[in-house]
Each structure stands twice: as structure tokens, then as C-alpha cells.
Design a protein that fits this description.
By secondary structure, the protein is mainly beta. Helices cover 9% and strands 36% of the residues. The protein is built from three helices and 13 strands; from the N terminus they run ββααββββββαβββββ. Strands 4, 6, 7, 8, 10, 11, 12 and 13 form an eight-stranded mixed beta sheet that branches. The N terminus is likely disordered.
Length: 227
């Protein structure tokens, strides 16, 4: 809200009751408060809007509590969800064939306090980094999908699948990079940067598969190869 007032300045010539100096009237307009739309453009505008709403028109300027600058690292204490890794089928696989990996990360919110102010934080997954436990990893902007959801046959490659070269037991995990937005009561405001949240390791067992051509079934010849 703009409030007009007057400010007096004196010159060095002319005649009046002020020692011969005329008095000039000039309009004075205090700094304008940002609009709600401007509040969402940058953090400084958002703080000014919040302070204006909290202070009110008749409160003294210095009665407003100070809001420290918020960075994304300040939000680590809100504990965004770690990703849970799932390997298809049933955390098992076959050496030389793709094992499909997915994770359950999704957008979620947390409520709490930061620097003594109530705040709501919204975390959104940006990147998923699959660590397969054999020294290989892969980043994806999707959490992956099951073979059924993709309408694919088992042991076919997907965007997040991995083929193990040897049988064994592997500790695989998915790390999630989250972007964050905060709401102090005047709308959502995005913060720069991301939070990297490591996932919990899952045990993946990889087996070998062998085939052999035989003339009879195992019922007919129990000692045949593979029986």
C-alpha cells in the first residue's frame, strides 16, 4: 500500500519567512511492497511479503522477526524418503541375462519448524542412481518399471536393468537426488540445488543357468545331465 507524504527542502534565494529561502513541497512515496506474483519470483521478495503480512500496517518496522536465508542443505533434517530398491524377479537373477531394477521414490511433503518458523517442505525426485553392487552404476530420471508394466517378457532389457557377468551375491542400492520447495504460508518457493539421499542396500542373488540337449526326460533317465 502506498502512502504519500511531504518533504520540505529550502533554496538559497527568494524571499519568505524562512530567512528569505522558499520552501518547496515534494511528494514522498515509501518503498512499494511486492505483489503476490512477485513474491514467487525470488527469495528476497518472498521474505518481504511474509514480513509485510506478519507485521501489519501499524506495527513498527523493527518488530518483525528476522527470517534467515534458507538453503537446501538446511532441509536435510526433514529426512526425505530414501529409495527402496527392488530387483526382478524377487531380487534374484541369472548371470548373462538382464535383472530389472525399480525403486518406489515419489514426491512427498514434510511439516516442521526451521529457525523457529513453521514450514512445509515438498521433496521431488530428480535423479535415481542405481548402484548394482558389482562396481557398475547407472543414473536415470525415472524410477524404473516392472516387466509387466512395460508389457515385456522376463529377462529382457529395460532402461534400469543390469546384466551381471558372474553368479554371486551383490549389495545393490539406489541413491535419490531430490529437489525441494518450501512454503512459509504464502505459497511454494523452489530452492536451488538438490539433496542426495543414499538408499538402503538390498541383497541380490545371481545364479548360473545351464542347458543341455538330452534324448530322454529326467523321469525316463534320472541320471541324465541336468537331472
Amino acid at each position: 500500500m502506498e502512502v504519500s507524504g511531504t518533504k520540505t527542502t529550502s533554496g538559497s534565494h527568494g524571499n519568505n519567512s524562512n530567512n528569505g529561502s522558499p520552501i518547496h513541497q515534494v511528494d514522498y512515496v515509501p518503498p512499494r511492497q511486492p505483489t503476490p506474483e512477485e513474491c514467487k519470483i525470488n527469495w528476497e521478495s518472498m521474505i518481504r511479503c511474509w514480513e509485510h503480512v506478519e507485521r501489519g500496517e501499524d506495527d513498527p518496522e523493527d518488530s518483525t522477526p528476522s527470517i534467515p536465508e534458507v538453503t537446501i542443505t538446511d532441509l536435510a533434517s526433514f529426512s526425505p524418503d530414501p529409495g527402496t530398491l527392488t530387483g526382478e524377479p524377487d531380487n534374484l537373477g541369472v548371470a548373462g541375462l538382464p535383472t530389472n531394477f525399480t525403486t518406489d521414490t515419489a514426491e512427498h511433503t514434510r511439516d516442521g519448524e526451521l529457525f523457529g518458523f513453521p514450514i512445509r517442505v515438498r521433496f521431488t525426485p530428480i535423479t535415481h542412481t542405481f548402484h548394482y553392487g558389482d562396481g557398475q552404476s547407472q543414473a536415470s530420471d525415472t524410477p524404473g518399471a516392472s516387466w509387466d508394466a512395460l508389457d515385456q517378457a522376463q529377462f529382457t532389457p529395460t532402461d534400469t536393468s543390469h546384466t551381471y557377468a558372474e553368479r554371486g551375491t551383490y549389495q545393490a542400492r539406489v541413491d535419490t537426488a531430490y529437489g525441494a520447495e518450501i512454503d512459509l504460508g504464502v505459497g511454494w518457493f523452489p530452492l536451488t540445488g538438490q539433496l542426495d539421499i543414499p538408499g538402503t542396500p538390498q541383497t541380490i542373488r545371481i545364479y548360473e543357468a545351464h542347458t543341455a540337449l538330452v534324448a530322454h526326460t529326467c523321469t525316463e533317465n534320472p541320471t541324465a545331465p541336468g537331472c
